[in-house]
Amino acid sequence: MKISSTIEWAIHCCSLLAGLPPEVNLTGKDLAEYHGVPHPYLAKALQTLSSDGILMTVSGPRGGYKLAKKPSKVSLLDIVLSIEGSDSCFDCDEIRQKGPGALERSASYKKPCLIASAMWKAEKVWRDELDKVKLSDLLEKVKTEVDPRQLKKGADWIAQRTQSKK
Amino acid sequence: MKISSTIEWAIHCCSLLAGLPPEVNLTGKDLAEYHGVPHPYLAKALQTLSSDGILMTVSGPRGGYKLAKKPSKVSLLDIVLSIEGSDSCFDCDEIRQKGPGALERSASYKKPCLIASAMWKAEKVWRDELDKVKLSDLLEKVKTEVDPRQLKKGADWIAQRTQSKK
DNA sequence: CCAATTGCAGATAAATTTTATCCATGATAG
DNA sequence: CTATCATGGATAAAATTTATCTGCAATTGG
Ligand code: FES
Ligand code: FES
């Protein structure tokens, strides 16, 4: 029941991009360096986000990634499902139909198993909670809760990166 | 983000045991056969449940497992955490402290990262939801929602098993 | 006491998934 | 035309999950 660490990378990348002006984009390499993670592997995640319509891609020199939608239209759930896939994390093998207590096939297994239902319900509240949090909400909070020196340092690095490529 | 299938086995075993009279116990082999799963591997899960105080163990001939607490005192969360371990499923590598945007160590990273907070919050609602569901709740619902023929077939098999060992 | 039954702990092996890298290709700004 | 950048596929290393085996301790019933 582990969530892969690329999720952390992906969300950080998206929320960084969400804070940039619309005309700016960052390359996969920039994003990797900024977060101190291996570029080739992060690239995979960025490609996935892009093919799922969360990021936009600009190819060619001075290309890179930017957010494909408004920050208020992208939730943490969108990012998580894009990277991890949207399959349920609990998957019922219908073991109730396997042992000696089982009835003939086609019999009365119309309703899902009570246990599976409970697990899925819990997963639903998890997803709902993540869907409530949009990138725009994070941006709001960042303004008030993060050390301004840190924000400046990050912004400077990005400015320098985007400048030096002109 | 997959939940291992032994969870399904473990919950089914516990809820089966929860429905039995207090003096009855089932061996690991019985439980494996009943659910059609490999005995040696299921045994591992049963051992874990037992060392976490969810199941009780009776050794020696006519020994086996029974529930260690009242069904109303065991939640799905208890079982899940016992098998999967109680670590958070999202684990934050503090990548915010790694890139060029990071400040000197010891600086202002007292509050957890906003992203990690959001992920943990979602995990909390998931756990809370699972903790609401007790084995006794499942037993209640089983009575009204499961095909009586199925219940009888299972009960007969168990009765035969526990008889033949006398 | 003895012998059979059962759970327990640890080592180990197979299978699968996650993590990571590389390269050939195509697009594009300058 | 050329250097930059994303893409998709292939591949490899590492970690985790799944599964099995073995020897040991506890207990019961005779
Ligand atoms: S049969 Fe899959 S959870 Fe019950
Ligand atoms: S640093 Fe780990 S989630 Fe932000």
Question: What's the SSE blueprint?
Answer:
The structure is a homodimer of 166-residue chains.
Chain A: H1 6-18, H2 28-35, H3 39-51, E1 55-58, E2 64-67, H4 76-84, H5 114-132, H6 135-145, H7 148-163
Antiparallel strand pairs in A: 1-2
Helix pairs in contact in A: 1-4, 2-3
The complex binds FE2/S2 (inorganic) cluster (2 copies).
The site of one FE2/S2 (inorganic) cluster (FES) has 8 residues of chain B, from helix 5.
The structure holds a DNA duplex (30 and 30 nucleotides).
Task: Jot down its keywords.
2 strands, Arc Repressor Mutant, subunit A, homodimer, mainly alpha, 166 residues, 5% strand, DNA-binding, two-stranded antiparallel ribbon, binds FE2/S2 (inorganic) cluster
Structure in words:
- Two copies of one chain form a homodimer.
- Chain A has a domain at 5-87 and 135-164: Arc Repressor Mutant, subunit A.
- Helix content of chain A is 54%, strand content 5%.
- Chain A contains seven helices and two strands; from the N terminus they run αααββαααα.
- Chain A has helices at residues 6-18, 28-35, 39-51, 76-84, 114-132, 135-145, 148-163, and strands spanning 55-58, 64-67.
- The first copy, chain A, has a two-stranded antiparallel sheet.
- Chain A is elongated and about 70 Å long.
- Chains A and B meet through helix 1, helix 2, helix 4, helix 5 and helix 6 of A and helix 1, helix 2, helix 4, helix 5 and helix 6 of B.
- The site of one FE2/S2 (inorganic) cluster has 8 residues of chain B, from helix 5.
- The structure holds a DNA duplex (30 and 30 nucleotides).
